[in-house]
């Protein structure tokens, strides 16, 4: 659903998902410029960082901070629920702590404890809500939280930092971002790490990667590389292996099977 205006500073997207596959399997959760808040329905979410079985959680809620490695989601063939992409400001406003405290972590609402008391009963409420109304329920609960913020002390970022985060997540290079907001690269790095838990360079990488993901299957890989600021197609492929754990063509085959008939989408992978 469209993000309600009251939530726009805090929520990048709010999506209800309902997927039925032929049988059990795994889904690749890719790094993003947003924190991920998932509320599964019918069965708990089984997720871990790829290659790190000790990080595995199986629960009715999942909160993952910014990260530069893929996650592995195990499923029985059916995946239903609501997924919310939170901005760094949204972490402060809705979860009660800076995104830096969540970087590289997989948590549940129970782990957050007193920091998110209004959200703790949301999984139970969602389970009893018809599929068509789930997004609206989550949006209503999150909007109520922001209403309380407006009545109390507002949660804000200094304007220069907010602009810097926006530029980096759009894939603008670090030096250009620092020049735009009038910070030295060192000072920019200090502020961005304190807020997000990632360096400006890593956030820029995520922004460029995220943009490339939106173009895969729609444009030839060489064109995607140029449009997203990679040196060449080989550079794009290396970044995908590093951040996604697979080359672009593998992700296309896994997630976008209908584009396998488009030769341009498969070139040179």
From TrEMBL:
InterPro entries: AraC_XylS_family_regulators, Homeodomain-like_sf, HTH_AraC
Pfam families cross-referenced by the UniProt entry: HTH_18 (PF12833)
Keywords for this protein: DNA-binding, Transcription, Transcription regulation
Presence of the UniProt keyword Hydrolase in the record: no
SUPFAM superfamilies the UniProt entry points to: Homeodomain-like
Keyword Transcription regulation: yes
PROSITE patterns: HTH_ARAC_FAMILY_2
Domain HTH araC/xylS-type, chain residue ranges per copy: 168-254
Protein name: Helix-turn-helix transcriptional regulator
Source organism of this protein record: Nocardioides deserti
